[in-house]
Design goal:
single chain, 202 residues, mainly alpha, Hypothetical protein af1432, 12 helices, 60% helix, 0% strand
Length: 202
């Protein structure tokens, strides 16, 4: 099918579709495997929730839909780089070596997008273009997702995640915001419940 609006072929979305093949927590034994696509969806849901709370409970000026969309793309560059495990990512030597890698990969991926839609997609892909509040909400959701993953692994009896859970929780506490505390108080307890208990409203 041809169109007067046709553009050069692009591998951009094909790259994104491969996020489901990229495992997270690769250096640790997992009771339940998690891939980057699953993680991105959960972060988008959590970021949307935090943005709604920030807007409707605490009166912040923010667009939850824009925040959720940015969260969907927050790890998009891992379609090229893969998921760098935390001990590697934050070691001094690796931090220096990879300091510009994400920016360079992001620029390369954005360049693959047809020019007519590139600005709209760049605003979602390029973290440097995100409003400060959006960036903070996505980061909070990213950490919250990681903590919930650690908590789930511990419930499955996997002690491999004990130290990670403590580290992520400490980071959440250090960067606590009103909307995050509201989420933890309101929705957090149910994550430790069984399905039967949730269905019964206990």
């Amino acid at each position: 099918m041809s169109s007067s609006h046709s553009a050069p072929r692009s591998p951009f979305y094909a790259h994104l579709s491969r996020l489901r093949f990229i495992r997270r927590w690769g250096l640790m034994r997992n009771a339940v495997e998690e891939d980057v696509a699953q993680h991105s969806w959960e972060v988008a849901v959590l970021a949307h929730a935090l943005a709604v709370i920030a807007r409707d409970v605490f009166g912040q000026s923010v667009d939850p839909n824009a925040v959720a969309t940015r969260a969907l793309f927050h790890d998009a560059t891992e379609a090229i780089t893969g998921d760098l495990p935390t001990p590697v990512k934050y070691s001094p030597a690796m931090r220096h070596a990879t300091s510009h890698l994400e920016d360079e990969v992001c620029a390369e991926m954005v360049h693959q997008i047809p020019e007519a839609i590139r600005p709209a997609m760049a605003a979602m892909m390029d973290h440097a273009q995100w409003p400060d509040l959006d960036a903070r909400l996505v980061k909070s959701a990213d950490r919250l997702s990681a903590w919930l993953k650690c908590r789930a692994e511990l419930r499955y009896g996997n002690r491999e995640f004990e130290q990670a859970e403590a580290q992520v929780r400490r980071k959440l506490d250090e960067t606590m915001t009103p909307e995050l505390q509201y989420f933890l108080d309101t929705f957090g307890p149910a994550y430790d419940m069984t399905l039967d208990s949730m269905m019964k409203g206990e």
